[in-house]
Amino acid sequence: MKASDKCDRPNQRTILLSEHPSDGTQxxxxxxxxxxxxxxxxxxxxxxxxxxxxxxxxxxxTVVRNKxxxxxxxxxxxxxxxxxxxxxxxxxxxxxxxxxxWREKDGGGWPPILDQQVDVFKNRESYAAMHSALxxxxxxxxxxxxxxxxxxxEENSIDHAYATLLANGQAKKTPFRFVASARPKDPDMEMIxxxxxxxxxxxxxxxxxxxxxxxxxxFADAYLTRDMTSHTKQSFALRMTRSAIxxxxxxxxxxxxxxxxxxxxxxxxxxxxxxxxxxxxxQVLVRMDRTLVRQ
Length: 295
Prior knowledge:
Layout: E1 9-16, E2 26-29, E3 36-40, E4 50-51, E5 62-64, E6 67-70, E7 82-87, E8 93-99, E9 113-121, H1 127-155, H2 158-167, E10 177-182, E11 189-199, E12 201-210, E13 217-225, E14 237-240, E15 244-245, E16 250-258, H3 259-262, E17 263-264, E18 267-268, E19 271-277, E20 282-288, E21 293-294
Parallel strand pairs: 1-9, 2-8, 3-9, 11-21
Antiparallel strand pairs: 3-6, 4-7, 5-6, 7-8, 10-11, 11-12, 12-16, 13-15, 13-19, 14-16, 17-18, 19-20
């Protein structure tokens, strides 16, 4: 099952081309069935704009005046990179590397970053380039401000404190009671799911061991929902021991949900906890039964 587009953060960003030869190739991050647009200051020469190895991966490139439209047929593998050369009408060739979404390694579980629109400027001093760069800077500042506020609130949250203890195997130091466990099947991941009951709260702990030999497993996002067709998040606290798990490594994800997350029209309802990995696929589904919340 695929996560919705909310599992990615669509990103409009600016590339100011460098005059230094070693900084020549720029990376563009794309995802299957999602259109990414490169926008340039000048018209693009369609006949001289090519991507190598696109067959079976991308739809044929579309060039419209000063725009190049990329539409992947499928998600690119984590180790895939497709060389793209965009040639402007004046003969300037601009090299790119088309890659799958990039994930902030130190982002504390942020989902992958996907390029929706990339504005490319050759003239670094032009008004449009400077304005676009300023908008980029302001947007990044807003994101940092939002993150800082979120971290501040989490530091003072008792549910996040409980989730930290559960993730570190210290359930006895919390008010939760163990209820049940399960071992979902996955060819590349050994998983143990435990659910806990609490006074006005419920919790789940997912233990993961990467038994595969292909690559590192990376956390993308978690959703606590009232049905499987919606990714509207209910409020919950999440902690993990590591967001990236290399082959042979183990990690733990703990989630604590307050009674208010289970309430609908004055009644308690069941919830579904969905954990997604960085390729957009669902890793595990945990049923959070309303009876876990003790009155």
